Amino acid sequence: MATEQEVIHIAGLADVGINTEELATFTHQFNAILEYFDILDRVSGDTAVTRDRYNVMREDVVEPSLPQEDVLRNAAAQEDGFIKAPRVM
Amino acid sequence: MGVHEITFEPDDRYNAFLTTCRKAPHGQGKLTGVAVAVKDNISTRGIETTCASKILKGYVPPYDAYVVELLRQSGAAIVGKTNMDEFGMGTTTENSAFGPTLNPCDTGRVPGGSSGGSAAAIAAGMVRMALGTDTGGSIRCPAAFCGIVGLKPTYGRVSRYGLIAYANSLEQIGPMGRTVTDVSTLMGVIAGHDRRDSTSHNKPYTHTLKAGIKGLKIGIPQEYFGAGVDPKVAAVVNKAIGRLEELGATTVPCNIPSMEYALAAYYVTCTCEASSNLARFDGVRYGPAADLKKSWHEAFRDVRRAGFGTEVRRRIMLGTYALSSGYYGKYYAKAQIARENVKKDFARIFSEVDVIAGPTMPTIAFKLGEKSDPLSMYLTDILTVPANLAGIPAISVPCGKAEGMPIGLQIMGRPHEDELIIDVAYTYEQAVT
Amino acid sequence: MTEGQVIVGLEVHCQLDTKSKLFCGCSTDYRSDAPNTHVCPVCLGLPGAMPVLNKRSIEYAMRVAKALNCSVLAESEFSRKNYFYPDLDKAYQITQYDKPLAEGGYLEIESDEGGEKRIRITRIHVEEDPGRLVHMGTTEQGKYSLVDYNRAGIPLIEIVSEPDMRSPKEARKFLNKLRATLEYLSVFDSEKEGSLRVDANISIKGSERVEVKNISSYKGVEKALLFEITRQKSLLRRGQKVDRETRHYLEARGVTQSSRSKEQEHDYRYFPEPDLRPLHVQSWVDGIVLPELPDARRERFIAQYGCSLNHARTLTGELRLANFFETIVAADPRGLSTLADTWIADTLIGELNYRNMSIDTVDAAGFTELLTLLKTGIITDKSGIEVLRVMLDQRLSNQSCETPPAIVDRLNLRKGSFAASAQSGAECHPVVDPIRTSITEVLMEHPVAVEDFRKGKKGAFNFLIGQLMKKTRGCADPGELNRLLTEELTKKEV
Lengths: 89, 433, 494
Description:
Chain A is built from three helices and three strands. By secondary structure, chain A is of the alpha+beta class. By secondary structure, chain B is an alpha/beta fold. Chain B folds into two domains: 1-259 and 355-433, Alpha-Beta Complex (Amidase signature (AS) enzymes); 263-329, no CATH class. Chain B is 33% helix and 17% strand. The radius of gyration of chain B is 20 Å and the shape is globular. By secondary structure, chain C is of the alpha+beta class. Chain C has helices at residues 41-44, 55-67, 168-184, 218-237, 294-305, 309-316, 319-330, 333-354, 364-375, 381-396, 404-410, 432-445, 447-454, 458-472, 478-491, and strands at 6-15, 53-54, 71-72, 79-82, 92-95, 102-110, 116-128, 132-136, 144-148, 155-161, 196-204, 210-215, 245-250, 255-258, 271-272. Chain C has a nine-stranded mixed β-sheet. In chain C, strands 5-4-15 form a three-stranded antiparallel β-sheet, with no helix packed on it. Classes of the chains: A alpha+beta, B alpha/beta, C alpha+beta. Chains in contact: A-B, A-C, B-C. Chains A and B meet through helix 1, helix 2, helix 3 and strand 3 of A and helix 6, helix 7, helix 8, helix 9 and helix 10 of B. Strand 3 (82-86) of chain A pairs antiparallel with strand 9 of chain C.
């Protein structure tokens, strides 16, 4: 089962953040669900999954791209056609 | 395309719509001028698409989902985007960031989810047809709770291009309507191959409805009438199945042993896929702005903590945990084996029967706020998730009431036999109307 | 392996030369265009967009697999590699994880000891390129990044080697051979900027392994490895440990730097990409007909044109160079081969590298004319070099290009314009006069040197000879110059 520390770690991995107020309840509910998932330990069967379709591909043909305005339209910040993002350390 | 438009000014006291198109343009075709509502996780060019989440508030897609292109080509008028559980995660539409939708049959109760807005819009008479999506029951549950018809097509029959993904291997866009005819008509517009969706099958829907089920063999799974199902619901559904027998069908009891872990397999799969699908929401290309004064890691985290609701964050974390180093074999890999077992169970049953019938939901619609514990909420999906795990078609058609609330009869069929289960539903509907 | 032995493995990422991107129809020809103009919902990662695999990228990757003697898997599939970074718009990269396209092959290179050596290939897989980040701002708080997604979704082939290389030189050879092979297969264009990136794994036997990421030039690889090996050996010599870590190569400073602070957890949470279907392409291998590859072409050059092993290696080491050579000698293989192979391998390449020019910029007809002038003895080798330099410089500065004969005439480089046939004992040849004129000029221009010569300073004569050679631009016979200068100098004795 996950400790509160692990829950914080997972929240970090997923970049979702977790507030200190909700941590205890969240961890409790989280673990109840994980415990429910344990039933899968009893599952046995073939690891090879039946695949009904393969090789779905397209030809190497160029198609029109979006106009630059459409690409930038929903971006909060842009500069000279680039999309602005927070700094990378 | 013509330059016609219809005026759409519904009395939306149920909060069914997030966006309403008061003047809805339309062209010519099979559905000329027919008002259709579209669930807000389906991309519509030029119309805000939010998945009922703050993290997509203001997002206006520059492209249409394939089904929306098809709707436009058919002449339909897209009159609005309907409310839903945030990103499809929920069974009641209470997880919407913009307030729950109320059930028109009883505004103190939920309409079901996650396509609660579409169902309510139809039940309230605002539209006859709407698009919903079904990942673990999200079309069938609200159809049952609101007393309308909803179909989850065979996986791959309807393109997912433009559907904002929650769980790619499980979900389908599907038709919801006042009657089976409405659902069948809408299915005819949206089904078919899309080369932009690699999981899309080449199976258009060109079916003419046929009533008549003489000789039909219906499997009745023991698990669908077991401990977790409200006896009042079971009774109503049994009566409906009795009606089908009167119409010439025979019933065969059957078992789905894999039901024991089907729900766990479902929630592992959908949370894992969701954790990856929702990672792109960081406020850079769309959504509320990332704070450029922070470093990227901090900025992303803050956007996501503020933009995602609690249930969404929970599922993202469950999925992240299940996929994290060392756990893949225990969770995701096992869940896929479990799915294979569910498929095998259905295949075995379908070698002896033509369709399977049972209740859509184990209870009638809950009261608003009734289910606050997440796990107990998940458990209500138990009767709908098997069809998603196996990729088979499933339809819910109204079959009576208990405590004044509608109940749905669920009919499941073999892969690609959507036509058959629709005919069964049609036959039943015609017989009882 | 001996203690202290260097162990190197490489992961090479090359952009496949398809017309459209790996999972969408956006054009791959983005380099000269404005940012975010080669983007669609799919490669921008807009919610709801879905990938569709480009068939040619798999065909190309399979050519590589076959050329590198790899086995193509019966079933391969794509997976998601999940991590957050501003240039990764879906926050996952579609790549191949536990079921790559091909495994287990090799590439032969010339080993450090001479002779051939096999570098084993662990695996080959296909994946998409992320976008491109530009870093802006100067103050700590004022920094931000600008993102261009034109590159997002470009198909990459990743070729992973076993740690079979034992020196930076071997690594360079591997990389060059790999690059040449990919060009011969017509799946890769090494001239395109940023089309090749390398991650290197280096360790000294007995110590931890260090990964150096994102080296983006061929020269960079050898330099990065040299630096890193020096750094590691120096740590070990001082009795310190080498930490197992990831480092970045900083091209401008020629150093590697620890990147621990930059990276998030390395938990990529791989799982199969649910929007793509698996590949069953093992049967395609038989249908692939490989073109002549570098080794075969090298052997053919030796057999067909009489090239030496070294020259053949150099000439076939780059597709364009090999093609250039064969274009040149096509008109007259017997007559031009020897000359062409030396002049291209020994001279032309050096001159091109010096000017950072590509072989593509050399006019084949012009070069053939130059070789003909040399073959027929109209100019000396030294003049030949000068003509070549003029041709290249003119091309480099975009001037109109003169033909080699025109250059020879303009610069008066004909062998016959100086004392070429003086040895034959002909009477005072008019051509001798220009030498005497040059001598007079040199003596007039350098009175100090003449004075020094008179004083008996040894270096003075050589200095004057040097000036004279410059003036006659190597067209005169050095022995002749020596004799005539001595004559002039002694004549002037007061």
